[in-house]
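Note to self: keep these together.
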Amino acid sequence: MNGFDLSNAEIPMEEIHSGGPPRDGIPSIDRPVFESVEEADRWLRKKDMVVSVEKGGEVRAYPLRILVWHEIVNDRFGTDPVAVTYCPLCGTAMVFDAVIDGMTRTFGVSGLLYNSDVLMYDRQTESLWSQLAMKAVSGPALGNELELMPSEHLEWERWKEQNPSGRVLSRETGTSRNYGRMPYRDYERTDRTMFPVKKYRDELKNKEWIVGVLVDGVAAAFPLEELEDQETVKARVGESPIHVTFDPERGTVKAGHAESGGIIPVIRAYWFAWQAFYPETALWRAP
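Structure:
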């Protein structure tokens, strides 16, 4: 298992699969370099997707053209460490606070998968962490959870128009990769998965895009295509009333608590991945 001690793993060993590359065969970006919108516009295409993160008055874009080759960016906003993560098999771009249980963590790609989702590891304890489960699943950190931060998944042409002074992750990654090529294009065009995934629910096609939320541990999913035809959707997740809004100008979805107005981070994912990790998820459908 790529050199990891899984003796206390809380997920079944037989359901952990090698993705092919060894540990760090997909190299994380540990010293990210950023460039201006004008510089990035010379190589990014209008419809390219980026992950947008705003913190402390700074806004940064992480192009999927880069993330698909690295999957993890260990970054800092001021003195605050964050982990920007991406699993191309599940379509999930998720950003986490990298201070966990009082320790600053830097993450790498283990080369292992669970339910077709990337298993990360932290270099401080070599514990394995599930991106979509948002917690450590083996090692000394077992029992610790990841704190999901708000982020957006949107097209480059929309991001740059609204963030002309923003900064963009550059191709100066310290690793030679063909950032002009997207290696998962064929995978994205089929409904098939590449690795075994638990199948609990079949209301949607495997790779239909959903927006998932977790409220006090209760999961709910909203099909993205159906949200696009709505204004603001009011729903109840567990005991909590929430609202979910599609922004047609950005092509993104935001969620919040109806009573307090607090932000609820959203997770854009393929349906097969969401239902595998959250089989009891509520599924909203347009009236």
